[in-house]
User: Fold these one by one.
Assistant:
Number 1:
Amino acid sequence: MSSLPTVATVIGSGTMGPGIAATLARAGSTVRLYDISEDAIARAEAAYGVVQGVLEAVDSPSAPGGSVTFGTDLDAALAGTELIIEAVPEKLELKQKVFADLEARVGDDVIIATNTSGIPISTMAKSLTVPGRLIGMHWSNPPHLIPMIEIIPGEATDPTLVDKLAEIVKAFNYVPVIEKEIPGFVENRVLYAILRECMALLEEGIVTPEGLDAAVKWGIGYKLSVVGPTRLLDMAGLDIYQAVSSYLNKDLDNSTDTPQFIKDKIAAGELGFKSGAGMYEYGEGDVDAKRKEIITGLIAARKTLSTIPNV
Ligand SMILES: NC(=O)c1ccc[n+]([C@@H]2O[C@H](COP(=O)([O-])OP(=O)(O)OC[C@H]3O[C@@H](n4cnc5c(N)ncnc54)[C@H](O)[C@@H]3O)[C@@H](O)[C@H]2O)c1
Ligand SMILES: Cc1ncc(CO)c(C(=O)O)c1O
């Protein structure tokens, strides 16, 4: 019998919510996607066909009966739900307010999973009437394409929820990674360690953005997509790691704040795709073209990687 919830609710229909809802629905759940904003719901409904096309392209597990309904009526979104996935903006007070609204409407047995990128689960749980039902479920963007989910119990999380959520994740063929609570969790700690060094190399003029992207994509990105970092050390030799890390580690960037050149770009309104300029400049139509290239590339890479054994 599948561990998937028969009915699930996703709260927040921005960047993450629609892909999360579509993934669960394709696997067979009845999913209700809720947002306070009518516009956000309209955008999600309009984009749903594209998301379904992506799931089809990567052969995401499908079962009959699944569906997504879109709406701004919270009671309707919660009727009969077994699992709520919260994906509202990364603000502690907002999430706590949402949890209070949810708890007032559902039974004590309903699981609340939060897609927070790093707010401690234990901190959020303090405001709950049933703190044991809150658990971290960190999807990666785009959620309908990246088949890995971090599961993070807080201090008060009911321990049985960890395995239960891991079984749900496996039911839609994603890889659950169970972690301990730590700022940024595992994925973002590793990503931000890489980004810190990358930004320092750019700021010091050691390499161009194009050169950096090529070096990371073909040097380490390609390799790490097949071999994880621990296996990579076995492949390289621990003695080599010791020899290099003994002089290199102390030279690596260890700044604790965001680089000044990034702050300057933000002050100038250069935020990336959403504002037409960021690390690169984008002309008319460039952003849409780049988004398409990225999705096409991720689909192709996921299909290829799924045929390769875990080494
Ligand atoms: N964007 C990413 O790459 C990414 C990746 C992993 C995790 N996350 C995390 O997922 C969460 C959501 O991120 P996002 O990027 O989708 O945010 P977003 O800002 O794109 O979307 C959030 C949505 O929540 C809605 N919302 C606001 N208040 C609400 C409320 N009270 N009830 C219901 N809906 C409400 C907004 O209208 C908006 O549509 C955050 O915690 C974020 O840190 C984001
Ligand atoms: C730079 C960056 N920061 C945070 C997140 C989400 O937690 C992501 C992502 O891609 O998921 C990211 O790229």
Note: The chain has a mean pLDDT of 96.
Number 2:
Amino acid sequence: MSPNTSHFLHLTRKRYRKQHKLLERLYERDSFLVQPNQVVKNRKLIKYWSKRNSLFSKFNERPIYLTEELWYSVTPEKIAKFVAKFARVCLPNAKKVLDVFCGAGGNTIQLALEFERVYGVDWSMEHLYCTHRNAEAYGVSDNIWLKYGSWEIIAEKGRFNKIGIDFLFGSPPWGGPQYLRESTYDLEKLLQPMGITQMLQSMISITPNIMLFLPRNSNLEQVSSATRQVFGVRGQCRVVYVKEDGFLKGILCMWGDALVKAGGEEEEPDEENTCKKKDTKHDVDYSLDG
Ligand SMILES: C[S@@+](CC[C@H](N)C(=O)[O-])C[C@H]1O[C@@H](n2cnc3c(N)ncnc32)[C@H](O)[C@@H]1O
């Protein structure tokens, strides 16, 4: 099968010739297709394989594509659905959405089920290919556009600044399972490809409506400090704790009035308490069990 490159932004340009060829090869070989009765040889993957339907509920009905790295890093479908529906409710008129670090498309797909036009960015051509193929399985590939490249460069060049993005989601790499080694996750040193402050700075010129999926043990003082530095002293961040099957999977940090204030009482923020776990009215637990 040959790829439909019209949904891969700029891929036909000369400088992306290598990536274009790689995409053709991936399609020809039907690479990374997860076979329904696959024997999982990698022992580390067994845990994820047994939970595959929580990653993509269509695993048994439609072809799903994952690289080894993506098995560990894809956002479980219930969480991705929650993110998309939450953003939809907060931003009822939004049309264009950007999913930075789109990986296997776990979030991109659910966003595309809610919004008209979704852009996905990833620096791995294999991952963009998986996003596209998985989006085909969910019937949403036509409203997804994929951009190959590293976020640092794309942001620096302001590639998405003039498109009119209404909502930006990002599930940046946490640096592997070792993120739980320390009791508190250092968002300035460990988050990739840049610390939380620089990450927000790279995103704010695109839209103030930002949501990041971060480790459950994230240092909230750093979230607070990054919020003030990027959004000013009156800036606010809403932190939502997300559980799946009773297990705390991570936190969703969100910025921008529409996301922060939705569903809450209109109240002046207390500068001291903005974003602190206990004192803010914006801390909510969402359990996605059942
Ligand atoms: C945690 S995964 C995202 C998972 C995704 N939300 C999903 O549901 O499949 C992080 C992704 O970021 C990509 N990535 C890492 N560093 C990047 C960078 N500097 N620029 C763009 N993408 C990057 C990786 O290739 C990986 O696919």
Note: The CA atoms of residues 240 and 284 lie 5 Å apart.
